[in-house]
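Hi U.,

Before I forget, here's the chain from the pilot set. I'm dumping it here mostly so it's searchable later in email.
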Amino acid sequence: MPASEVYFSELRLFLEDICCDLCLLDDLGQGALPADAVRIDREFHLGAPSVFADIRVQPAGEQPFFLEVKFGQPRFELVRRLQRKYSLDTEPIRQAARLVLVVDVARRNDWPDIEQEIRAAINPHLRLEVWDETRLQSMIQRRLGANTGAITASRLLTVRDRFEAAMGFQAFGGESIEEYRNDPLHSALLWHLGATQVRALRQAEGRTPRQMLPPQLYRRVAVMMADLACFSSYVRDTRDPAVIRESLTSFYTKSRYEIIHRGGMLYQFVGDAVIAFFGVPRSLTRVADRCLSVAKSLLDIGDSVATHWQRRIDRVQPSGGAHIGLTIGDVEIMSLRPFSRTRVGAVSDSINLASRLVSAARAGEIVVSNSFFHELTEEKKQGFVELEPLEGRNVGKIKAWKLSLAGRYTSPHEPAEAPASPPEQGP
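Structure:
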């Protein structure tokens, strides 16, 4: 990938994060919206094979809308991609009110012609709304009180630092946003939990930063391990290492967003796998249902990442997407250094068990432990089938259940995915 393409790819991911956070915030002085006021989905399926919106925003009591970040994309590619997605007449598009396009208008001398072409290319049911550089900066200033300045290559790290400081101020409070700085503990908590959860822990429970993720034994924690299927095969057949980095960064950032903004804790990434907890640092109602819902979203993200990756390489891969293992049990959180809260580790038999369940799942499948399955509500149990006992190496035979969503986006005229080769072992 050319250097400019690598830059714009990473910039788009960064701006997606910013736009998602802006949608979760009211105007400055009001702070964060209630936790259930906005539902945000990354890589939302639009009802046709391999077609995903960058972001879908569902405000409570209002029609949803789609948000596409297209900074740096050439005119032909910009129009073609939007047409491929939003010329469709599917149920998700019919339910939406508008399409928000975040795009670098200032550098496009022919923007009026491009905008007219886009309006003609998308479903007339969708109202087109454009957020250019000026509007984006204005929204950051109005909702966060942060003046990021121009979003350019030379200032990107400065923009990121200012935005993260503004989110830290929203989460932790302080005398003023001008004086606020994220210290190492604040940065670690924002990474693992996100600003919305940190703010709730501070305001609703009165916790100080050192009290937000205390080392202790946490009971009834749902553990999720999500892994990209056939990852080694994709890497082996990818000539340009920049494509590998782009694909993994996309999977990392979108998975983390889904986890932390739906009540989970992002524990860590291990290679191409993500490990998350639901029930740390505070217990959650219907914890298994919540964890399963996020797992389904991560299947969409994995499918989208694999589809994009496949378009960049020559050899057709035997499978693509994510496969996921879910368990429930106790998790011990501990400091990795004496008195430290900035580096934490976790010990749990549930993590070990989840890695075994991932190995039993193929792309588009979720395998859950028996105890996890019985924590689900009756509605969420629908679609699961009981498996023959799994051989878990050093953990003995495992009773498990599987939910297969592979091929759910295949059109009637398109063959379903061929049986995948045995899944690769997770970490």
